[in-house]
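Narrative progress, year one. The postdoctoral researcher (J.K.) led the effort to move from monomer predictions toward full complexes, under supervision of the PI. The following entry was the first complex the group processed end to end, covering 815 residues in total.
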Amino acid sequence: MRKPENLIMMIGALLLLVLLPCLNAYGPPDSALHVSDYTINLWGKYLCYGILAISVNLLWGYTGLLSLGQCLFFSLGGYALGMHLMLKIGKLGQYYQAGNNPLEMPDFMVFMGFPELPAHWVPFHSFGFSVLMVFVVPGVVAFLFGWLAFRSRIKGVYFSILTQALTYAASLMFFQNKFTFGGNNGLTDFKTMLGANLNDADVRRYLYIATVLLLIAVVALVKWLLGTKFGKVQKAIRDSENRVLFSGYATTSFKLFIFVLCALIAGAAGALYVPQVGIINPSEMTTDKSLEAVVWVAVGGRATLLGPVYGAIFVNALKSWATTAYPDYWYIILGGLFVLAVLFAPNGIAGLPQQIKDIAVGWKRRNASSIEPGATPA
Amino acid sequence: MIKTNLIKAAATLCVAAATLTSSVHAADTVKVGVLHSLSGTMAISETSLRDVLLFTFDEINKSGGVMGQMIEPVVVDGASNWPLFAEKAKQLLEVDKTAVTFGCWTSVSRKSVLPVYEKNNGLLFYPVQYEGEELSKNIFYTAEAVGQQATPAVDYLLAEGKKKFYLLGSDYVYPQTTNLVLLEYLLSKGVPIANIGGGLSKDKAGKVISAGKYTPFGHTDYQQIVAEIKKFAASGDACVVSTLNGDTNVPFFKEYAAAGLTAEDCPVVSFSISEDEFRGLPADQLVGQLGCWTYFQSIESPANKKFIGDFMSWLKTTEVPGIQKEGRVTCSPMVLSYAGVYLWKAAVEEAKSFDVDKVRKVLESGKISFDGPGGTVTMQKNHHLTKNVYIGETTKDGQFKILKSFDNVYGEPFLKGTFKTSSPAKGETTKKKKKAA
């Protein structure tokens, strides 16, 4: 399985990184070869979800920690960059142009009656600081939560419930207008990033390329990590934590490290997601979003390197298509598919080739064995 | 390996399929987008708007279409998922190239698609009561502005002799903004601040940043709040102004009735309960409580009778899958969706073009109006409607008995800070006076 996987990665990377953007930039507009700006933007979103799914899989598939709150870190990364983008709206804001916002605050602050920009918003004027926060905020939250949870030996379903509670609590907090992050409406109507107009087709393409690069980097990192001794311990923790513990490994530190790492990955994905999608609000933190990410991993193939990416792309592409083609039935289509996937393809999309091979081999063997008794004369 | 390539191909196909269907564009049809949540938490409200829009398109197509072109609806599901709304809006504008979109219910969904419409210079008609404080050149708000719901309701209650007002809402932007406007309005009407219930919170400078009591979405325990209201209402001249949303109304009104409070001693006026919501609410517990909208199903006018009759018979005959046929009602957001389509049609025919800039210019002229089920509505230069406002009392069959109407109320999105306090008890409201246009 190792070699074809490498090949797929190479082909996939080439397709996503070179072919799609080139067809978008240079394909003649009316031909079948042209990839529209819409498609590029859509794939940018899918791939951000793919990166999020990798982080879920690294926790669930390889370490046995089912986190049902991974979208919290995704959203925190998104909010950190979103705050910068909000501040960059500046003079283009509705209230500034109407003459009611001399301080150039984000519009929602004016209409919620903030007297001035809250102090913790001020440093987000700097792009560098915001990017730093994309990693620091999810990282610190994950570290604190993980440290408390793992130190108290919270495992299995209790860990899952706690992560779910954490993200739910955070979403309730962000829903409040007083919490200074735009309440229910969240952060939206971004105009520019680093001086570039976020609505430009070129800028959308660069954001897409950045997403692909991040995806490749994350896949490479995970692949490398799994090959190291650390990766082996990680899998051992998944399979039997007590034995690893008795063998003298401090499993708490291992788990904490991987939990924080996954939060960083999710945060980075969220930061790339926000400028491409154009909105971040607390509903991204609600528990069903995190559950959805777990479903992508299950459909794509748990504990496989690329499965989560397949799952995220497949489920979301299906959702994009079905919400237009069958707006009334798409939940049923999607639900039916999950049931089928769980029943008949326990290893997900990534496990399908092997599954088919096994069936074929089994079938051949059965045929061979049914012939054999006849072939040997009594 | 083959399999994974297949998956990629399939995924690409999905996108390609969407692109292909859009390029099959007959010359004598015009594409119109319908962007509502047909699944998820908002589906219960938004599906009705999809239904009424499809009905309207059929009605228009039967009478010759828009400028001789048949309306071809492109229905997409926003699935109560706000980033998906943005994606679907992009699809409608960039792939399907729809001439106009009718859609959105929640403010956050509108905020999510707004940049998309501005970037692509699209056209969106938004039909649901909202908090204002927004004016995009690409959106026309057929919705009730705060001044077409909250302030007329308060006027009515003041005229009824109510002196104390308890503000209660779900904790999000619409109730918060509405209540801040109401606070200013009540003060300007000479209601002392002590008579405004629910609590105030102030910032360090002493400026009121939030007025009223708020509960989260899905809140179920109203015991304490109702006890507080009971105390507040002991004087007999109090009322409750509620911006509670959706299913939280059920436990609230149960608790309200259980505490022995009735519409006689302390009426509740709700801004988020229309006829359509009564399909999921126990109407008998709300009998006598008030509602305020720019349309009620019970309006006695030939236009309304015809609208209801046609819609009901359309429901019976339609073959569109997924439409609930039994127990249907009409309500304000539905009628404002209906009016939106006709206003757009009138503007297109006046402009003799589907071009967004030309249509917008005509709509902004102030000459486009429509005699609809709720009376005449006129599009103003500021993208809002002048329309009639009605106060109604809930009856046991989930309808409203109309008590009072205000004719031709102007739609103003920027109300906050426009009311002068008559008794200068608090200095904070004078700060933002400049916004009065």
